[in-house]
Design a protein that fits this description.
This is Antibiotic biosynthesis monooxygenase. Strands 1, 2, 3, 4 and 5 form a five-stranded antiparallel beta sheet that branches. The chain contains three helices and five strands; from the N terminus they run βαββααββ. A hairpin with a 5-residue loop joins strand 2 and strand 3. It has a single domain, classed as 2-Layer Sandwich (Alpha-Beta Plaits), CATH 3.30.70.100. 19% of the residues are buried. It is globular, with a radius of gyration of 14 Å. The termini are close together. The protein is of the alpha+beta class.
Length: 105
């Protein structure tokens, strides 16, 4: 497990490229901060890539000791994405579910 934990959680959304800096700041103050405050979280980050269709894809990735620890953040249904008050201001589209991957390192 060396540094990453046992589970990776990944969510994807899409924003306007011009909103990238503002959205990064917003997510840092909301979702990423909440991830990091949750016991069992081993780190979280946000990734961006500009797409040919004029949107910017956003991916949040977090690392956890266990799925039980993820429940402390997401609730009982860990497959459902967690959203915040101002998400509609930025998001053009979003996944409403998240993916979880077991890490074997």
């Amino acid at each position: 497990m060396d540094g990453f934990g046992r589970v990776m959680r990944s969510w994807t959304g899409w924003i306007r490229p011009e909103d990238r800096a503002a959205y990064a700041d917003y997510i840092e103050r909301t979702g990423l901060a909440e991830y990091r405050r949750t016991p069992g979280n081993l780190g979280a980050l946000i990734c961006f890539r500009d797409l040919d269709d004029g949107r910017c894809e956003v991916r949040t990735v977090s690392f956890w000791r266990s799925r039980d620890d993820i429940r402390g953040f997401a609730g009982d249904d860990i497959s459902r994405a967690v959203f915040y008050d101002e998400d509609d201001r930025y998001l053009l589209d979003r996944e409403t579910t998240v993916d979880h991957f077991d890490i074997d390192a």
